[in-house]
Structures are given as C-alpha cells and as structure tokens.
Amino acid sequence: MAKAKTKSIRITQVRSRIGRLPKHKATLDALGLRKINQTVELPDNQMIRGMIKSIYFLVKVEEA
C-alpha cells in the first residue's frame, strides 16, 4: 500500500525575538527557528497551526 503524502507548510521567521515574551521565544525554539530569515518545513497539523497562531506577527507561512 502506498504511503499518502502529508501536507506541509514552510515557516520563515521575519522579525526578531529580542524583547519578546519568554513564551514567544519558547514557541520559536519549538518550531526550530533561531534566526531571522531562517525557514523550516513542518507538517501541517493543528499543533503547528496553534504555535503559529501565537506568534503570527513574527513569522511568514507558506504552503509547501
């Protein structure tokens, strides 16, 4: 049986983490973002979407 391809999203950090709340910094770390313009590709699920929702003003999201 063939494995179904899962959807993924590309997340790019576009604003600095300096001066942000500790929970926002922790969310960036959990997503694997540490520098401005760094991009990660993650599965598109509710957990990741919830993290993005809390730091929407620091990142750019694209469908991959």
> Low-confidence stretches at least 5 residues in length (pLDDT < 50)?
none
Structural class estimated from helices and strands: alpha+beta
The shape, in one word, is elongated
Radius of gyration: 13 Å
Strand tally is 3
Give the helix level as a range of percent: 25-40%
Largest sheet: 3 strands, antiparallel
User: Mind telling me which CATH architecture this is?
Assistant: 2-Layer Sandwich
The CATH topology is Ribosomal Protein L30, Chain: A
Number of helices: 2
As a percent range, the share of strand residues is 25-35%
Question: What would you say this structure looks like, in words?
Answer:
The chain is α+β, with helices and mostly antiparallel strands and 64 residues long. The chain has one domain: Ribosomal Protein L30, Chain: A. The protein is 30% helix and 25% strand. It contains two helices and three strands. It has a three-stranded antiparallel β-sheet, with no helix packed on it. The longest helix is centred in the middle third of the chain and has 10 residues. It is elongated. The model has no long low-confidence stretch (mean pLDDT 95).
